[in-house]
Amino acid sequence: MLELEWRIKVVSEKPFVENALINMYMESSRVNYAENVFKGMSIHVRDVISWNTMITGYIWYKKHSLALALFRLMVQEQGNGILDPGILVKVMPAVVSLQQGREIHGFGLKRGYCRSNLYFSSSLLHMYAEYGAVNSAAKLFENLGNRDVVTWTAMITAYAKHGRSEDSLRLFNNMRRQGLKPNNITFTSVFITCSQAGLVEEAKEYFNCMTQEYGLMPEVHNYAALVDMLCRTGQLREALMFIEAMPVKPTAPIWGALLASCGKRCGEARMIRETMKRCRMKNVVGLSALHVTN
Q: Is 0.85 surpassed by the pTM of this model?
């Protein structure tokens, strides 16, 4: 294989040859080979595809520190001119601290990507939410030139994740007033918000809004959020009835929410088991142990 590399490089010095080799090695899990090809390229030969492929490969194989280090080297060697939104988005999973996230945000600001590329903006919103910097996320959101359903949902989710129910629902209703159509993920965040705030009736209204006003078909994660809400508010029997009426097969997270709500109450655990049998669902790990313990 190394001889093949040498013969190809003799024929052509264009970077697409090396880029193809890097991609091939990354796809075949030969990360060291990809690194050797990349290191053998001069600074002037490496292009955006070379850097992109290496960074993407590192992230795919969970080598996040290497991905971030390579990103910094790219900026050092090539300057901001080589940066594109795709590279910035791909390097985001390598971020392991708020400081690193702000660093990536800074690069995006210099290139104007925060306002022009909604995909990059959404990844920043998720990053700030992940590290609890909700106010930073809100400031970024307010400064966006254009917003789509993804960015609205990212901000609604950020508020929901950190218990800011009032802000989450306010933003959701603002989104509706501006004529944007929420998607299923948006509604899951709304249901989670209602669950945290104990807004059962409001959640039911939003569920009807999802299906009737927007014509969305509920997905499993929508049902799971509603079941979790009913369990959190102590409405276990209603949760069981809701599960039995669902047009989709219950998943492990749904049963897990029920199990967490019944704790060590043997009668309720037995009731869940009976419902699972009616739904033709195998035992969820933990249910049998709960039954035996009691």
A: no
| Domain assignment of residue 195, yes or no | yes
Are the beta carbons of 184 and 222 closer than 8 angstroms?
yes
For position 289, what pLDDT does the model report?
A: 32
Interacting residues of 177 by C-beta distance below 8 A, sequence separation 6+:
none
Positions in the chain whose pLDDT score sits under 50: 3, 7, 10-11, 264, 282-294
Q: pLDDT value at position 282?
A: 45
Contact (Cβ atoms closer than 8 angstroms) between residue 190 and residue 156: yes
The CA-CA-CA angle for residues 30, 31, 34, to 5°, reads: 95
Contact criterion met (CB below 8 Å) for 91 and 67: yes
72 in any annotated domain: no
Place of tokens 């490089």: 9
| Cβ atoms 222, 191 nearer than 8 A | yes
Residues of the domain holding 178: 147-218
What would the DSSP string read from start to end of 127-195? HHHHTT-HHHHHHHHHT-SS--HHHHHHHHHHHHHTT-HHHHHHHHHHHHHTTPPP-HHHHHHHHHHHH
Domain count, the chain: 1
Sign of CA dihedral 158, 163, 164, 165: positive
Amino acid 294 reads N
Q: Flag whether 63 is in a domain.
A: no
Q: Provide long-range contacts, Cβ within 8 A and 24+ apart, for 184-187.
A: 184/210, 184/216, 184/218, 184/219, 184/221, 184/222, 185/153, 185/157, 185/221, 186/149, 186/152, 186/153, 186/156, 187/216, 187/222
Asked if residue 171 belongs to a domain, the reply is yes
